[in-house]
Inverse folding.
């Protein structure tokens, strides 16, 4: 059975103080319907990726809650998997279509974070970690800093090389009108920014954001051919919640497992991928992902990025053309769906100033926690 | 493709102060593996139904969290749909098997509620309602009381007739060693209990509970035939979150929609069902469900229950042989899976003192909020 993405939309990402979760979701879903040439009545089911609405907004029963916004009494599901909630919602939606249960479904990723007290947001996000990590006072910047330190030691990589991730992603973000930050950065800017968790600096950490993204996927024949992009693989990998239970700090086995399965299902190798959206919650996360996904050899990811090999205009593969989590923003439940929206734009050839030339195969990499769960999707023109 | 339930387990339900969510989950999953003759390594994926762990326990990323408890690095998913989280997790698991993505999967329902302050629990549960309901100070007992009042007016039904639901369910619970309350009640006991939300009294409201239940389902051929029970329909219906947006207070359209689809898929009529687990969060909920599911005519549900037509030993169909939410307890995320465990016990003929004679077809009815979502499963011997 062939599944196509036929409708896509994303709201502005950023600190959207005046917009409610309902309004964000309505905007994304309405525009996705318009883009896909569908009415709400033609949608068989809704899958919602969200992490924090219950904790930060006292709203659960999110399938029904956002189903009401869509204006359709259809089976509706809320899938939570921390920052991978969006990718997991799409995976679940894909399975429901392959099962023959539904034909055309909406997948919504949405998160509203900035209305809340910083302490509540930090505590909410740390709910994705392990008991031991929380009890020891660890935060996600701290956990990823451990990975960065291990990586720098293992491969003799400098802080400047890690910083190049943010420079690339801010350059891409400067070309994306939906991005939270549309300003270019230099290595010096990154290096001089406040240290958050040594060696990670403020400009190596993704921000707190609001936003919603939606896609419509279908198994039915597509009328407007130029808009149909095939979803050829959807795979999930998992690992322990806590870092201390893992064999290595410089690779995420959840990503390796899921991407191997996805490449096999799609019948491609990493070299075939033209464009990828990577879960760069921190600079080190993108470096490790670049290697785990097979886009660079072990220990060579940071250098490849700093040499422009993943940058628009000069790379063999372009990673995070949207600006990634760092520049485009990271409304956690929305991120996995925004990645799909970006790849579909790239494969359709409608990505404007940030268009990757001749993009035919794209990949998304969405991670929850510090690698406890990873979701890989592969799309083809 | 045929899907069988091959392993089942449920922990004690009740106020389990000394047991953590992890321990509850471990107990249920370990026993389900044992019952199904499987090892953790033979499980392809895990689906977790839970509503409140994030709000009450500051734990998200629940797929990975409980996957770690299972001791398997397998794709793991957390599905939330308020009190229907368990049923929705099973529905999602069924689809993933029908999709050909996984063959043998574990579905866990778990909730730990009693450790928390009553105010936090009430606020957490009300997250399943609508903004308007919360802002107006409504609680779920209040919302169901509106339905009870409307039903009593429409069909000239007395409070005593409604009270008979609790009498039946406590009688069944008295035969279930896993039930939170194993004490029989009289109509007088119920009528004299404290009014919670007129006309509903304390003994017509399901309790706050802890507990976990797990089932293993598979598309693979089953070796131990007597343990294999077929899952022949899994359907979801939805409605508005808020009562005031509905056409009627005396029927839940989500239940009607889902059950019609389920009966059709199973190729049966309501008369074919021998035993059913019903979501009796309040007495009126069971009365309306009895009618929505087609087990009694409109306006006749309460009388049928009071006349013993749904009681063990005297009924044509037995509803809530486990004791239902009222007597067995209602750890919200676990409920939808406990219902499956009970029906499988009944169809296997291993339900002990509460065994329904010649039970061949069973149904479960799991509801989220005040009817915003409903999940119906039908099982056959």
């Amino acid at each position: 059975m062939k599944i196509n993405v036929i409708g896509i939309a994303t709201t502005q990402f950023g600190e959207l103080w005046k917009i409610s979760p309902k309004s964000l979701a309505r905007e994304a879903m309405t525009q996705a319907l318009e883009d896909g040439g569908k009415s709400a009545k033609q949608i068989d089911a809704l899958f919602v990726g969200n992490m924090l609405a219950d904790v930060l907004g006292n709203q659960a029963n999110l399938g029904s809650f956002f189903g009401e916004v869509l204006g359709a009494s259809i089976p509706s599901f809320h899938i939570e998997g921390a920052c991978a909630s969006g990718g997991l919602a799409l995976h679940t939606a894909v399975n429901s279509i392959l099962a023959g249960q539904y034909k055309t479904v909406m997948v919504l990723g949405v998160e509203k974070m900035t209305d809340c007290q910083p302490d509540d947001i930090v505590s909410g996000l740390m709910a994705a970690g392990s008991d031991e990590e929380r009890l020891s006072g660890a935060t996600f910047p701290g956990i990823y800093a451990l990975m960065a330190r291990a990586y720098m030691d293992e491969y003799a990589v400098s802080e400047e090389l890690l910083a190049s991730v943010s420079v690339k992603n801010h350059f891409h973000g400067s070309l994306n009108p939906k991005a939270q930050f549309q300003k270019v950065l230099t290595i010096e800017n990154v290096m001089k920014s406040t240290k958050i968790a040594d060696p990670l600096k403020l400009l190596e950490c993704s921000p707190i954001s609001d936003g919603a993204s939606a896609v419509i996927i279908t198994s039915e024949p597509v009328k407007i051919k130029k808009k149909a992009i095939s979803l050829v693989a959807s795979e999930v990998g998992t690992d322990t919640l806590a870092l201390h239970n893992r064999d290595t700090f410089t690779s995420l086995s959840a990503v390796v497992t899921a991407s191997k399965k996805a490449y096999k299902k799609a019948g491609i190798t990493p070299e075939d991928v033209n464009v990828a959206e990577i879960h760069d919650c921190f600079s080190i996360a993108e470096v490790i992902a670049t290697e785990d996904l097979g886009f660079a050899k072990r220990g060579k990811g940071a250098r490849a990025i700093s040499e422009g090999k993943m940058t628009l205009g000069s790379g063999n593969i372009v990673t995070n053309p949207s600006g990634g989590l760092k520049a485009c923003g990271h409304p956690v439940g929305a991120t996995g769906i925004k990645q799909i929206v970006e790849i579909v734009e790239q494969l359709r050839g409608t990505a404007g100033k940030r268009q990757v030339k001749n993009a035919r195969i794209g990949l998304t990499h969405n991670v929850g926690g510090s690698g406890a769960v990873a979701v890989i999707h592969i799309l083809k023109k």
Q: What stands out?
A: Residues 105 and 326 of chain B are 29 Å apart (CA to CA). DSSP finds 14 helices and twelve strands in chain B. Residues 332-348 of chain B form the longest helix (17 residues).
